Here is the input.
Amino acid sequence: MLSIVFEFPAGRYHATPWGHHVNEGLVEWPPSPWRILRALLATGYAKLGWQRAPAVMRTLVETLAASPPPTYRLPRATLGHTRHYMPIGALDKKRGVEKTSLVVDAWVRPFGALGVVWPAETSDEQRALVARLLERLGYLGRAESRVRARLLLSPEAVPRGWDVSTERQHRDDEPVRLLAPVPTMEYDAWRREVAEAPEDLLAALQIETTALQKGGWSSPPGSRELVYWRPADAISLALPAGMTVGANVRFADTALFALATDRKRDVLPLMERALPTMSLFRRALLSKLGDESCPELSGKDEKGRPLQEEHRHAHFIPLSLDARNRGRIDHVLVYAPMGFGQAAQRALRRLRKTWTKGTEDIAVTLVGMGELASFRAIGGVSLPELGRGTTWESRTPFVPPRFLKSRGKDSLDGQVRAELRHRELPDLVASPVITPPTDASEAGLQARWFRHFVRTRQSRKAPGPPPGLFRLTLTFERPVEGPLCLGWGCHYGLGLFVTGRQRTKSGARRLTEVEGEAESPSVLHEER
Here is the structure.
């Protein structure tokens, strides 16, 4: 049995999972058995002067391939990434600047040693070779992933941490697909039918990426995919106090998500498409529930009936926090005044992607989960959607929930005040102020921009809204804390108000330097 420990003196581990592009921002954690064996082989050639792998290395590979897959013990770790915009030596003639290419550098930051236990019956000679290779191993994964590795005397000496294996232990465990070598006999039988395959398993482990691409291999010959189960809280994010993305918290009513797309022809959805985008986001989130009942996310009880307490379930609030990309929905705040139960928290942690019209899948990252107060300032910048004040202005258009009449309870004033009463909010000191569409003021330009907002969801069965898109200014009798969402479609991004005067299509600065480190000038932001 081989018990190995890896330490990361540089504080970061970089490795892209097989079958994924580096710009997807994924990290292979824990490192796959295939990666570990290739690293040992590379060390033998680079540090021990091998011209050919010795016979003991061949038997070691065959022994490990035939044994049950290794188990891992993971230390506490956080996930992060930087984005670099690298010049490509071409000129953008329209903008008059040099073109750049986005490169995402994702990593895991382990706060401790990684343990690997390989349940294989190895000889003393094989163990001695592994010990020599581990002592000389300089990196694991990409070259910047510096490691110190050593062979332990027994599995009991492996540091404590989260156990990861091919056996699922808990309901919240998430699958991780890792490559491992197939047994030698299985490889030899397969190779007899594939003439162009490497001559043996050892040769397959040493094949270069260029050869794989040239040969059109969808996966390395001699490899198999194993599904490991990693605890949901094995990787967290460096977050402000009060936020978490790990195990269920005692109370949470708010979750913040970051959206990203790495394909050049795909862009994040416009704020004008808040309604269908948030509707699809909710649908993607509900798909993670399975058969579980979750009134705080669905707005329905166990029998499928709408909740009697109106507006206590989840609001999906679109945010534009990147000042360089104004008018695009780059974050989503999910807020449920009734709080998130365990089923809701599991679904929130499981969400990985959503979609919108005209684009490929949009990557979704849970930035944090906790109480609403923890999110009022992100990255040192206060969110106007979560502000506090007596005067509130429309961020997205207010749509009356019923057809308007000139007076009475169905007038604009009557409908707004009714919305406030349903939410137990203070009354207004005066009727809502309507800003007409005009070019004469910034508020008028925003009212004109509101005309472009989509008012239909993806589902054709959903009832259409009453006519009317309004930019309103509300003044309350006493200060009100956000989020303030009123009117038709308020759970999907419409009727969103902010404190103070907001520029059209503007947003706060995007989350930066989440892990609190000063990066190189090429790093524009860091959020994972």
In short: The chain has three domains: 2-76+106-232, 237-381+508-528, 384-505. The first strand starts at residue 2 and ends at 7. DSSP finds eleven helices and 23 strands in the chain.
